[in-house]
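Dear H.,

Thanks for agreeing to be a second pair of eyes. The structure we're designing against is below in token form, covering all 301 positions.
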């Protein structure tokens, strides 16, 4: 990894000045070699809402592993096992092999489509792959300061780029396999045989065994740019301060965490990192940072 910090003055004169700063850091980590007695799997659960927890040589700490989500089966007739070349797999009697989950449930129209990596017609742990990385490529900030006579204006931004988040809230509110409240997104779900629509969600099905498996369906880019600090200050003229029998007086207005620019659909993309080799960045609706407003006065005697 590396870190870059720079600050420089652009323009300066008797009455005003303008300065900029920029910092960026990059931390790269990889499991290069694992001990022979190290258990590389903490969890092999592939049930609804669960992601297998594992580490893998060549991948970084904070990696996601799960299924590749390909959409929704339009109808019962479409649900067949296919070979790597796309041909329908048939048994010894020429009957198409059903497409199943763990060999116990046969998928139907309206169910989610998961990539069958080994083309055996069965979605199981063998179809789990690397689907995301919680580690930002870059973390940093930048800002500027402008001083004009007695006015002082400062603004600063914070950013993270190149990382993924599992939207845990979407898992809970778009699964439709229990009686809990759901989001408005489920209004655009599969309802009838042959239905094909862009962005359509799987059907509603109480206690469906595989409608909401841990997949890249819920993995989103977490890139964001946050307006971290905005401040405007004014120093009263010295002549006025002398009349008021003080050495100096100032007034300042400041706002923190005012805006966040991101395409992430959850509450807050700034998911905290943890010191755990099996850690993965999941957003479970932790309270986002509040926007704060401050008005302050300073008096020097």
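And this is the sequence the design step returned. I haven't edited it by hand at all.
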């Amino acid at each position: 990894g590396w870190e870059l910090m720079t600050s420089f003055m652009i323009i300066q004169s008797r009455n005003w000045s303008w300065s900029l700063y920029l910092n960026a850091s990059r931390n790269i980590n990889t499991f290069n070699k694992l001990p022979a007695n190290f258990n590389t799997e903490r969890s092999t659960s592939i049930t609804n809402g669960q992601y297998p927890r594992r580490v893998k040589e060549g991948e970084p700490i904070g990696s996601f592993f799960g299924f590749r989500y390909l959409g929704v089966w339009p109808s019962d007739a479409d649900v067949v096992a296919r070979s790597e070349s796309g041909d329908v797999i048939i048994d010894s009697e020429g009957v198409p092999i059903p497409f199943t989950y763990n060999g116990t449930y046969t998928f139907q129209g309206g169910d989610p489509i998961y990539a069958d990596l080994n083309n055996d017609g069965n979605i199981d742990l063998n179809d789990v792959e690397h689907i995301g990385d919680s580690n930002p490529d870059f973390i940093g900030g930048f800002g500027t300061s402008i001083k004009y006579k007695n006015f002082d204006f400062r603004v600063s931004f914070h950013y993270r780029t190149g990382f993924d988040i599992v939207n845990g809230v979407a898992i809970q509110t778009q699964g439709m396999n229990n009686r809990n409240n759901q989001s408005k997104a489920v209004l655009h779900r599969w309802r009838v045989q042959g239905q094909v629509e862009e962005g359509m969600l799987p059907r509603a099905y109480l206690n469906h065994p595989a409608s909401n498996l841990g997949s890249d369906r819920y993995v989103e880019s977490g890139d964001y740019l946050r307006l971290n600090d905005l401040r405007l200050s004014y120093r009263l003229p010295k002549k006025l301060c002398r009349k008021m029998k003080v050495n100096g007086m100032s007034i300042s207005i400041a706002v923190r965490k005012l805006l966040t620019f991101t395409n992430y659909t959850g509450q807050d993309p700034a998911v905290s990192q943890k010191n755990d080799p099996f850690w993965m960045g999941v957003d479970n609706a932790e309270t986002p940072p509040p926007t704060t407003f401050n008005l302050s006065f300073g008096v020097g005697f």
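Two observations from my side: The first strand starts at residue 2 and ends at 12. The chain is about 5% helix and 40% strand.

Warmly,
E.
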